[in-house]
Amino acid sequence: MFATFMEVLDTTVVNVSLPHIAGSLSASVDEASWALTSYLVANAIVLPMTGWLASVFGRKRMLIAAVFGFTAASFLCGLAPSLSMLILFRVIQGATGGALQPLSQAVMLEAFPPQDRGKAMAFWGLGIVVAPMLGPVLGGWLTDNLSWRWVFYINLPVGAASILMTRLFVFDPPYLRRANRGIDYWGIGLLAVGIGALQVMLDKGQEDDWFGSHWIALLAVLAVAGLVLFVVHELRSRNPVVNLRVLKDRTYSAGVFLMTMLGFVLYGSMVLLPLFLQTLLGYPALEAGVAMAPRGLGSFLMMPLVGTVLGRFDPRKVLAVGLVGASWSLYALSKLSLEAGYWDIFWPQFIQGAALAMLFVPLTTATMDPIPREEMGNATSLFNLMRNVGGSMGIACASTYLYRRQQFHTFLLGAHVSAYSPATQNFRSGMESTMMAHGSSAPRAASQSLATLWGMVQQQASMLSFVDTFVALALVFLLVLPLLFVLKRPRQRGAAVIAH
Questions:
Q1: Nearest-10 Cα torsion for 302, 303, 308, 309
Q2: Does the N terminus or the C terminus of the chain have fewer Cβ atoms within 10 A?
Q3: Residue 401 in contact with residue 276, Cβ under 8 Å?
Q4: What CATH number has the domain spanning 246-500?
């Protein structure tokens, strides 16, 4: 869990520091954002290959190498003298970090008997759920009080502790033998092109107006062509780098899709709330991060409980409660207004965190239940890849939908602000009279009143766009509820009840 926590934390902790990184390295914020994109691309390419890499080099050896590489790359990122060097070290960090989640998850699933996997996944899942929420708070505090370089240095003690504990307590199971088989060069190449192009497209699409940009259109073509050819090649290959045949099991494939949607909504909503707090309610970055802490608190308190009692209940029923609870929390956030106070934000987030615990733990245990132990590493690689891809899609879709709805509401509200409207005339005349009484000239007062009125229209349009986007994300959770009927009841449920 240490390794996973460190890696997931790094996907969000750097975001707050981007303006400081840009200023320190004499770059624009847009240029500095490649420090985020390069990490995500390298991470996404390596993630699905993790099971294959573990079978070639050995799981324990691979895990230690990945943690060491990630920790060393973090140290080099902190020392980076220029933006180009920082991006290079972030690529190394992302490539080594991509193996951490699936490897550690596979180790946890194999180390515990089926009846105890819920508890194990609950503890391990704390890192997955809490780290993205802690990232902005920790990143803001380190940047404000020390330097942006400490955002990377903070990984050193965590990485050292992870390596030490892995050497002492993690061992390769006897059935996991290092394979002497050919290397699937075509599979690796097509995977790198397809996933890499998809990740860059999702990360930069909104910024470059999506398919209005030839660059984004080219990336879309590369992503589709690369991934289609990759799937065809892997299904025909004798030694595939990613064994896609595991998706033939309906429980596993349904679970992977549900995890994709969970990543979609989780990361999409995580982008929305800080924007709402900072742009509309005027929260500073650090305070916005602190205001988001209740979600992590809800997960932190609920996950151990879910893991303990999961064996007594059908995981599908727990998943249904979690989906409905998470959907309700997003709907509650859509009811916020410009006068929202701290507790109006606290309770929906707290309930959402608790609901996510009821989603992540049973979904992982139910999805992995039919997978043979020999395929666990490959299965966890695909599972984690699709959560990350879903997260990238969620961020891209939420940002785009928010922007488009803001345009729509600005046009709609602006159409009702007419120079001939009595309400508009009364507002402007009252404001102009006040400003002229304080010494402003008539032309200046008229211009200022018009600018204030336009600002109010934009603010209300922005608020309405956040409402629409939260409602849309809430509907996503409800729409995937029928997939729970596709999942099979875990075979080990009876053993779990006896054990408890």
A1: 60
A2: C
A3: no
A4: 1.20.1250.20
pLDDT digits (tens, 9 = 90+) for 402-439: 888 888 988 888 777 766 667 666 666 666 666 666 66
- C-alpha 339/C-alpha 327 separation (Å) is 23
32 pLDDT exceeds 50?
yes
Measuring CA to CA, which residue among 40, 442, 28 is closest to residue 202?
Answer: 40
* Confidence at residue 20, expressed as pLDDT on a 0 to 100 scale: 76
Task: End-to-end CA distance of the chain: give it in Å, rounded.
Answer: 25
Length of the chain equals 500
Token readout for 334 is 């859509």
Q: Are 449 and 292 in contact (CB under 8 A)?
A: no
pLDDT tens by residue, 36-90 = 778 878 888 888 888 778 777 777 888 889 999 999 998 998 888 888 888 889 8
- Using one digit for the tens of pLDDT, what is the confidence trace for 159-199? 888 889 888 887 777 666 555 566 777 888 888 888 888 87
Q: How far apart are CA 246 and CA 253, in angstroms?
A: 8
Q: How far apart are CA 27 and CA 302, in angstroms?
A: 43
Tell me if 469 sits within 8 A of 405, measured CB to CB: yes
Return the exposure string of 142-165: e unless at least 16 CB atoms fall within 10 Å of the residue's CB, then b.
Answer: bbeeeebbbbbbbbeebbeebbee
- Map out the domains of the chain as residue ranges: 1-183, 184-240, 246-500
Nearest to 358 by CA among 484, 189, 181, 250: 484
pTM flag (> 0.90): no
What topology does CATH give the domain 1-183?
A: Growth Hormone; Chain: A; (1.20.1250)
pLDDT-derived band at 472, boundaries 50, 70, 90: very high
| Domain 1-183 shares a fold with domain 246-500 | yes
Please, are residues 365 and 118 in contact by the beta-carbon 8 Å criterion? yes
